[in-house]
Automatic annotation (TrEMBL):
GO terms for molecular function: AMP kinase activity; ATP binding. Catalyzes the reversible transfer of the terminal phosphate group between ATP and AMP. Plays an important role in cellular energy homeostasis and in adenine nucleotide metabolism. It comes from Bartonella apihabitans. The lineage of its organism: Bacteria, Pseudomonadati, Pseudomonadota, Alphaproteobacteria, Hyphomicrobiales. This is Adenylate kinase. ATP binds at residues 26-31, 143, 194. Pathway: Purine metabolism; AMP biosynthesis via salvage pathway; AMP from ADP: step 1/1. AMP binds at residues 47, 52, 73-75, 101-104, 108, 155, 166. Belongs to the adenylate kinase family. Keywords: ATP-binding, Cytoplasm, Kinase, Nucleotide biosynthesis, Nucleotide-binding, Transferase. It catalyses: AMP + ATP = 2 ADP.
Length: 208
């Protein structure tokens, strides 16, 4: 999880090399990753989206992941490390990428270091969206209502039981990454309770 912007002659004039967002379910990782992807033209590598696609396509990975995801648990490190490593090899990642929802365990963070090192790159910064946990269930409910209003399919893990489990998984397995990355000097914390545009501005200031 890291990122920075640097001066370039293309697109909006700046390019993100690699950025990664850390934060609990509903913190706004996907929202911010999508905004930066549209603005700077580099891909969002969301392990959640990749796994949901695998489930929808009925692949072997999707079959293994479905029941775990539906219950709000974490898919095995082995599976997500492999899909991220493979995804980074795709041509559109050459200019940089935004990691969204990965790594999620200390084991994944260690694997990511090895993966990036083998591809001759490294993390530059990790951005943690700091949020009030009490607001997250309401954000999930809003997303469900908006999805229904738009005629879309509600995520199978956007229900109170699975969401509660996702929050527990976050505190037990993912929150320790804040300390992990603080020790490396890469961690930057942002107020994720601010309005979306303000969060984006704060991220861009850090990445510059
Ligand atoms: P994943 O898809 O990554 O879900 P998540 O981490 O639970 O995160 P969400 O997508 O719920 O939230 P978000 O932070 O992206 O918030 P969003 O921007 O949507 O993972 C799903 C599952 O896949 C996992 O449970 C696990 O099973 C598996 N998985 C994925 N990665 C894995 C890994 N690395 N290892 C193992 N298993 C893995 O925003 C939420 C809502 O809030 C939206 O409605 C949005 O409009 C609103 N909002 C956003 N920002 C703001 C703001 N600033 N103010 C007000 N509202 C806001």
């Amino acid at each position: 999880m890291r990122g920075y912007l640097r001066n370039q002659n293309s697109g909006a004039g700046k390019e993100i090399d690699e950025t990664d967002f850390l934060g609990p379910p509903g913190a706004g990782k996907g929202t911010q990753a999508k905004i930066l992807t549209e603005k700077y033209g580099i891909p969002q590598l969301s392990t959640g989206d990749m796994l949901r696609s695998a489930v929808a396509a009925g692949t072997e990975i999707g079959k293994k992941a479905k029941s775990i995801m539906d219950a709000g648990g974490l898919v095995s490190d082995e599976i997500v490390n492999q899909i991220v490593s493979d995804r980074i090899d795709e041509p559109d990642c050459k200019k940089g990428f935004i990691l969204d929802g990965y790594p999620r365990t200390v084991g994944q963070a260690e694997a990511l270091q090895t993966i990036l090192s083998s591809k001759h790159t490294k993390l530059d910064a990790v951005i943690e969206l700091v949020v009030d946990q009490n607001a997250l269930v309401d954000r999930m409910k809003t997303r469900v209502a908006e999805t229904i209003a738009a005629g879309g399919k509600v995520r199978s893990d956007d229900n109170p039981e699975a969401f509660a489990k996702r929050l527990v998984e976050y505190s037990e397995k993912t929150a320790p990454l804040s300390q992990f990355y603080a020790k490396t000097g890469l961690l930057k914390k942002i107020d994720g309770m601010a309005p979306v545009k303000e969060v984006t501005s704060a991220i861009e200031k850090i990445l510059h």
